[in-house]
Amino acid sequence: MTKNDCYYLGKITKRHGFKGNVIIYLDTDEPELYDTLEAVYIEQDGALVPFFFETAQPYQGNKLLVKFEDVEDETVDKLINRELYLPLKSLPKLTGTDFYYHEIIGFTIYDQSNTEVGTIKSVNDSAAQAYFEVDAQGKEILIPMINDWILEVNREEKAMLVQIPDGLLEIYLG
């Protein structure tokens, strides 16, 4: 299993108590989807290694309280701040205009008049408003990801139809 076969789930943030329990932060809008999670992959020495849960329960919002199988209390501290991954194939399939950020990289964006704008290079969600980073004729364009603006996602054609406000492209392309 490699990182390319997986998606980032979150990380182990700290120890909890003295019995080898840890707190896992889940980087998701729907932490309840992971309430029945039984294992995760943790990177060790450049490889992803499966770690199975002895116990797991929801804990304060986007967190899980976990005890790993075969991990002794004295070795738990070595896992703190490690990133957690799950296989991409474990993600439920999305339809319509819903998508995972990783799946739209390389998609061509078209505006509401069906004119090609450019190719999605990445999605930046580090600010309050997430946006597409698009390569348009060698120039980077930032298009806010607003649900109402995403008109169609065509997975077969690797294309996305987006309503782009008047003047936005001109700011970048002159």
Secondary structure layout:
Blueprint lengths: L5 E11 L4 E6 L12 E6 L2 E13 L3 E6 L14 E5 L20 E3 L5 E9 L6 E6 L2 E6 L5 E5 L4 E4 L5 H6 L1
Question: What can you see in these coordinates?
Answer:
The structure is a single chain. The chain is mainly beta and 174 residues long. The protein is 3% helix and 46% strand. It is built from 1 helix and 12 strands; from the N terminus they run E-E-E-E-E-E-E-E-E-E-E-E-H. The protein has one helix at residues 168-173, and strands spanning 6-16, 21-26, 39-44, 47-59, 63-68, 83-87, 108-110, 116-124, 131-136, 139-144, 150-154, 159-162. The strands form 2 sheets. A 6-stranded antiparallel beta barrel has the order 1-2-5-4-3-6. The protein has a 6-stranded mixed sheet with strand order 10-9-8-7-12-11.
